[in-house]
Design a protein that fits this description.
The chain is an alpha+beta fold. The chain contains 12 helices and 15 strands.
């Protein structure tokens, strides 16, 4: 069933308007089905792994629709409440957790990593938390350290153990950029150490609950349940096969958060004001921390890719492909979540955003 009713009423009831200014909305509201966006999303529609699309302008949804199925086996449809594994879109929550702890005075971004994780070898002596946030630590990729035939899932502490045995880095910390899942897995452990809690609990208590993200969770199998869960699939030999988990899917800090369109709308709203993070923290999150050679990523901030006036991040795992794309000057956000191995949704999000960029002020 399409998720299209009462868009303006929905957003008011959810209390997630970003500006609080009462400004007139310049962007057109497209009531699904919309021929233009539906044509872009055609391959996701029907009895196939699907996608959820949300466009927000000035805190209000101007397009919101689910396509296809969240669960093929019982034909559960995708809705705005369907929770997808965010994969690397999770990194912005890990970064926010570190910034919250810095605001608390529990840690400093310039702390040596080994202050919190002293078991790391000497090669990590010069690494700081700031370098982990900006992917300039030079840490080895933990995926490359796992046995080629590994089937058991690794967790964030296992990432630490893998790195404990590697007294080397790709480069001198702080001298170059290399995207690092290892760094964000270690940041999750630092959150646990500095908060006296654990990463999943900290996100729940300090980010998800305060923002009303009631169904978002850093998922731990056997510990929590994921409401309205989408399962991941991959197309193989013309057939869809469930590929929901891999040996790295249980690592939380680099990609373990599940969330929905509705909850991510609340998160997006919090990035415009100080309801969660202070203005100084938000400025750090979205300031260029390091240049990169990645396409459409001139700079990386803390958990965000920065390209001129755009702030974005994608997420890829064995059966999910996601993106959040923000244009804060235009107060425009496009979110695409999908439970399939292809295609990458970033180009789709760019095309969808163009429907509004020429009309909003």
């Amino acid at each position: 069933m399409h998720i299209v009713r009462h868009l303006r009423v929905w957003i008011s009831a959810m209390c997630i308007a970003g500006s609080g200014s009462g400004a007139v909305i310049a962007a057109p509201v497209l009531t699904p089905p919309d021929p233009g966006i539906d044509a872009l999303m055609q391959r996701y529609d029907g009895q196939v792994p699907g996608a959820a699309v949300l466009v927000l302008h000035d805190g209000q949804p101007v397009f919101r629709r689910g396509y296809g199925l969240a669960v093929l086996e019982d034909r559960t449809a995708v809705t705005a409440q369907t929770n997808f594994r965010l994969a690397s879109v999770s990194k912005q929550f890990t970064a926010a957790a570190i910034l919250l702890l810095a605001e608390d005075g529990a840690l400093s971004l310039d702390d040596p990593l080994k202050r919190w994780l002293p078991s790391l070898p000497a090669a990590a002596d010069a690494i700081t938390l700031r370098q982990l946030l900006s992917h300039t630590s030079g840490l080895l990729d933990y995926e490359d350290l796992m046995a080629a035939d590994a089937t058991a899932q690794v967790h964030d502490p296992d990432v630490l153990h893998l790195l404990e045995g590697q007294d080397r880095t790709y480069f001198t910390p702080g001298t170059a950029y290399r995207y690092s899942n290892s760094g964000y897995a270690l940041l999750a452990l630092v959150v646990g150490k500095a908060s006296g809690s654990d990463f999943a609990t900290f996100l729940h208590q300090r980010i998800f609950l305060p923002l009303g993200m009631r169904d978002s969770v850093a998922h731990q199998d056997g510990v929590d349940d994921i409401a309205r869960r989408a399962y991941g699939y991959s197309e193989r030999d013309g057939r869809w096969q469930r590929t929901d988990q891999s040996p790295t899917s249980a690592v939380l800090g680099d990609g373990g958060v599940y969330s929905s369109l509705d909850d991510l709308a609340r998160w997006d709203a919090a990035l415009y004001d100080q309801r969660l993070l202070k203005s100084t923290s938000l400025k750090q999150m979205f300031s260029p921390a390091t240049p990169t050679a990645e396409p459409d990523v001139p700079f990386y901030g803390f958990g965000w890719r920065l390209n001129g006036g755009a702030q974005w991040h994608s997420g890829e795992s064995i059966g999910f492909r996601n993106v959040i794309l923000r244009y804060p000057a235009q107060r425009l956000t496009v979110i695409v979540l999908s439970n399939r191995n292809a295609p990458e949704p970033y180009p789709l999000a760019l095309q969808i955003a163009r429907r509004w960029l020429d009309t909003v002020q």
